[in-house]
Structure formats: structure tokens, C-alpha cells
From TrEMBL:
The keyword Isomerase applies. The gene is trpF. Belongs to the TrpF family. GO terms for molecular function: phosphoribosylanthranilate isomerase activity. This is N-(5'-phosphoribosyl)anthranilate isomerase. The lineage of its organism: Bacteria, Pseudomonadati, Pseudomonadota, Alphaproteobacteria, Hyphomicrobiales. InterPro entries: Aldolase_TIM, PRAI_dom, RibuloseP-bd_barrel, TrpF_fam. Residues 10-213 form the N-(5'phosphoribosyl) anthranilate isomerase (PRAI) domain. One of its GO terms (biological process) is L-tryptophan biosynthetic process. PANTHER family: N-(5'-PHOSPHORIBOSYL)ANTHRANILATE ISOMERASE (PTHR42894:SF1).
Length: 228
């Protein structure tokens, strides 16, 4: 089981407007994700990211999501935006994760796609270099971008993980299923994008509030059960 006394993290990813960002902050999200992958429907310009980050700073941690960038590109982003975290959502090998962390001085979250048990074998190589591992669904084979497809994976695959391993869970989470996902996988946090949207890239303020409340309640219930 994850350390149940540590704070549970709720991240809303792919925010692109002040209204939806403020909805996430008002709902109590701990992390907000800004997507810098040009093929994503959630892509935002650096100019927009800076203005959204100004609203979030001090209220939630700012996560900049990049795909297969090198440490020089990542350093440029950090200089411009000053995010708290970098989320690496591509095929970055462990050495590149480490190089980006060293070059930028930022905490790094590495996303790993899960579709079958064998995918979990990659975790140890990253657990020593990344500050947080995000276990996400693998994208469809013909996908134009590698995350944010609203597809869950089989949560029971995580049953054999070391209970002390702290990870975040994503992939097809939504207000209706997040409690079950938390109860089954016992993550240290959850991350959502499509499940709080009305269409790809269009966040829904009501669904954001519902998701954060449902995740928070499920995490509280889990913590109480752990203390019983
Ligand atoms: O969200 C995107 O458009 C995206 C594009 C490229 C790489 C990663 C992307 N999203 C990653 C996320 O952090 C999502 O929150 C995660 O994959 C879960 O997405 P969803 O299943 O839609 O909730």
C-alpha cells in the first residue's frame, strides 16, 4: 500500500483557459497540467501558459507536460515558465529523465504506459531517477499523441506492486469511476484529462469539481480504512 499518511495528490491535466483553471483551483486540485505537445488538442502556447501559471502559482503546483524533449529544450521551458514539475510523457529513457532533472533542477514525473503485466517491468529503472511515476493507459496504436485518450487500463494489473511504491494513476478516470480506481490500486494520487471534458480539449468546470470531490472522498475513505 502507498504511504497513506502522505497527502493524496489530485492533478487536472490539459487546462487551457482561465475559467477552467480557476475551477480546478477552487475545487482544490493540487497540480495543474499544461500541455506543450503540438499535436495535442490541449496544446497551449508559452504566452498562454505563462498567464495561466500566474493564476495558479501558490495555489497548486504547475506541471509542464512535454514529449521527447532534450534537456536543452526543457531548460528553455523552465526559464520561460518556472514550473514546479516537468511531466515527461514520451519514450524518454532513464538517462534522459536524469539529465533533464539535473539540467533544470525541477521535479520530474515520468509517465509509463500500462497495457499488460510486462509493462510494469520498466518501473524500477525509472523509480530511482524520477520524483514520481505516473502509470497511465497506453495510447491507441494509431494515436497522433501519446496521452489523454480517456482509456482506462486493467487496474488489477497493479495488484502485485510493492505496497511501498508511491505512484500516480491516470487513464480514463472520471468522476464516476475514480473512487473504484483508488480503492483497487491505492495510488498516491490521480491525474485526469478527458474525463473532465465535454469534448477533446474542452474542459467542463462542473466535471472538474465532481472529479476532485470524488477523488478526495475516496482517498479519505482509504486512509480511514488503513487506520482502522
Ligand atoms: O492530454 C494530452 O493531450 C496529452 C498529449 C500528449 C501527451 C500526454 C497527454 N496527456 C497526458 C496526461 O497527463 C493525461 O492526463 C493522462 O494521459 C490521462 O488522460 P485521460 O485518460 O484523458 O484522463
Amino acid at each position: 500500500m502507498s504511504d497513506l499518511s502522505a497527502p493524496f495528490t489530485v492533478k487536472i491535466c490539459g487546462l487551457s483557459t482561465p475559467e477552467t483553471l480557476l475551477a480546478a483551483l477552487d475545487a482544490g486540485a493540487d497540480m495543474i497540467g499544461l500541455v506543450f505537445h503540438p499535436r495535442s488538442p490541449r496544446f497551449i502556447s508559452m504566452e498562454r501558459a505563462i498567464s495561466l501559471a500566474a493564476l495558479a502559482r501558490g495555489r497548486a503546483e504547475i506541471v509542464a507536460l512535454i514529449v521527447d524533449w532534450d534537456e536543452k529544450q526543457a531548460s528553455g521551458l523552465v526559464e520561460a515558465l518556472n514550473p514546479d514539475w516537468l511531466q515527461l510523457h514520451g519514450t524518454e529513457p532513464p538517462a534522459l529523465v536524469e539529465a533533464i532533472k539535473t539540467a533544470t533542477g525541477r521535479r520530474v514525473m515520468k509517465a509509463l504506459g500500462v497495457a499488460e503485466k510486462g509493462d510494469l517491468a520498466r518501473i524500477p529503472a525509472y523509480a530511482g531517477v524520477a520524483d514520481r511515476i505516473l502509470l497511465d493507459a497506453k495510447p491507441p496504436k494509431d494515436a497522433a499523441y501519446p496521452g489523454g485518450h480517456g482509456r482506462p487500463f486493467d487496474w488489477s494489473l497493479l495488484a502485485g506492486l510493492d505496497p511501498a511504491f508511491r505512484f500516480m494513476l491516470s487513464g480514463g478516470l472520471d468522476p464516476a469511476n475514480v473512487a473504484e480506481a483508488i480503492a483497487i490500486t491505492k495510488p498516491a494520487g490521480v491525474d485526469v484529462s478527458s474525463g473532465v471534458e465535454s469534448a477533446a480539449g474542452i474542459k467542463d468546470t462542473g466535471r472538474i469539481a465532481e472529479f476532485v470531490a470524488a477523488a478526495r472522498k475516496a482517498a479519505d475513505d482509504l486512509q480511514k480504512a488503513g487506520q482502522a
